[in-house]
Each structure stands twice: as C-alpha cells, then as structure tokens.
Write the structure tokens for this entry.
Amino acid sequence: MAMIEVTPISDASIAAAVKRLKSGDLVAFPTETVYGLGADATNASAVAKIFAAKRRPEFNPLISHVASRDAAFELGEETPIATALSNAFWPGPLTLILQRKASSPVSILTTAGLPKVGLRVPAHAGAQMLLEAFGKPVAAPSANPSGKISPSNVNHVVNGLGESVGLLLDGGPCASGLESTIIDCTNSKPRLLRPGGITREAVATALSEAGLDPAITVAKPLENSEKPVAPGQLVSHYAPRARLRMAAEARQHGEEMIGFGPIHGAGSLRLNLSPSGNLIEAAANLFSMLHAADATGSAYISVAKIPDTGLGEAINDRLRRAAAPRPD
Ligand code: TXA
Ligand code: MG
C-alpha cells in the first residue's frame, strides 16, 4: 500500500487534491467538525472506495459537501425549513436532508439508494478552498474506519485510514470536534436525525425567527439488529475498543476515567473533557480523549456525567452509542 501524503493547505496542495478527486481517488480533508474522507460524489467508483476504505455498510448514505447554498439547492429540493436553516447556519456544522432532484448528478451510491440527499456547506477555509476549486459535490463521511471514533486531527486519520488514502490535507485540529447536526427538511416538521455542532435550541430559534413552527421531531436510535430506515441511527456507532461506562462518579478498578468539570479524570492519563465544565471545550476534546483513553490499552473507559443541555445532548448521544452493547 502506498504511504499517505500529509500536506498543509496551499494553492499547490489544493490543486493536487482536485487532480486526485477528478481521477476518482480519495482525499481526506479538514472541516470545522471532523476530518472528512472525500471523493467525487458524482463518481460511483470513487464513492465505492470510501465504503471500502472505511469498511462501511453500504446502506449508510454519505453527505455531499458543496461550497455554497446555491450549489446545494441544485442537488436537493429547497423547502421553507431548508431555506430558514441554511440562511441561519450555512456555511457551518449543519447537514440538511432534502429530496434529491431528478437532475442531480450525485451518484446513487452516495445516497445509498435513498430518494433523499444529505447536503452540507462547511465553513472551514480549507474545505471551502477545496470545494470551490473542485466545483462539484464531494461525498465525505468522517475519515475513520466505520464504527470507530471520528477523527478530529490528522493523526487520527493517519492511524485509522493511512493505508487507504493517498492525500490528507492538514488543516490542524478541528475547531468543533463533533459532527454536524443533521436535520431532515422533507416533511412538514423538521426531524432531528443526529444532534451535533448546532444545538436543538439554536435550530428552534432560527425556525421561529423565520416565522416557522419551531417544533422539532427527533428520530429514535435503532437497535443494532434493525435495518436503519433513518440511516446513521445505529446504536453502537462510535465504539472505542474498550467498554465504556457513562456518568461515572469515581474511577473503578481497571478503568481509564475521563473527567468533566469538578469530577477529575483518573487512571494513567487523568483526562478531563473540560476542567471548567465548558461544553464547547468538552465537545472539541471528546473524540481525541476517547482515542487517547482507548490507546492506553485499558479494557474499560469511564466518563463523568455530562449535562444533557446544549452541546451536552450531542456529547451524550456519542457516549451512549460508544457505551451500547455491540454485536462482536
Ligand atoms: O460533520 C460531519 O457531518 C462530517 C463531516 C466530514 O462533514 N461527516 C460525517 O459523515 O459525520 P458520516 O458519514 O460519518 O455521517 C453522516 C450521517 C450518516 O449517519 C448517514 O446515515 C446520514 O448522515 N445521512 C447521510 N445522507 C443521508 C440521507 N440521505 N438520509 C438520511 N441520513 C443520511
Ligand atoms: Mg461517521
């Protein structure tokens, strides 16, 4: 296998990345949420390389990333909810699920055969440069092996996928570290498919400021055995190798414990998601601390209780999935 090339973002590296995308190869790139594993969304064989590299079940569709709102609404049908949310949060950590347009060139493999398409306009300057230069949608899941922890810096990508990706654009650590909030805009009420970088409260506020009903329905996570009708809802999805225990008050024997606020971390690393109890800081640290705790080789990880408000909802969602019993 070829070695991965890790290169800072520059005009030259963006041009090299575009060349690879055009020839159907994979490029890993930063966004403000997590690193993405990108391919030309209109090229099925390029997209297939993503599933292969991630060993990802093909029923799980991929988000198409574009540089602007206009480019997004060429691919999916705009709805009043989509107008309001895209005005409020794009570019940014929000993914909208829309009916795919008949004219959309996005490969059916990208949407895993669904009549709907997931669209995102990321804010990260490097991602924007890449998307503008490429000029077509880039399909990109998080750049991690399927079912593993999402990558919030280049080392996570190199360690997880270094053998199967040729080029990795280095944009430094991701500012948010939590994936985008996903909202299905195809019904009369918006449906929250995945909590993420934009809080449910902020979504409700944007809806009412646009004169729309702020009520949001929430998709329930499915059991592992069920076929995901709302994909991305597999319960055990963010699994570290170690078993994980939530809402820990103190370290139990054999655990690498990750603290939060006044509850200290314990074990070999004494990690704390945010000593001051700041949920934004905790979200940014979440995946890298789970990676670090997992890398100690400890069989058990515990995490202190995180409040379920604001970004805490998305953090607890990820932790619940990581803690869920899994079929292996
Ligand atoms: O922040 C993010 O969203 C990152 C960065 C790279 O953009 N991407 C990301 O992609 O987290 P991924 O593939 O790891 O998660 C995307 C989720 C999946 O759970 C998938 O099932 C869901 O989005 N999704 C994508 N298209 C969909 C569709 N048409 N209908 C329902 N769910 C969809
Ligand atoms: Mg992912």
The longest helix spans residues 279-295. Confidence is low (pLDDT under 50) at residues 223-232.
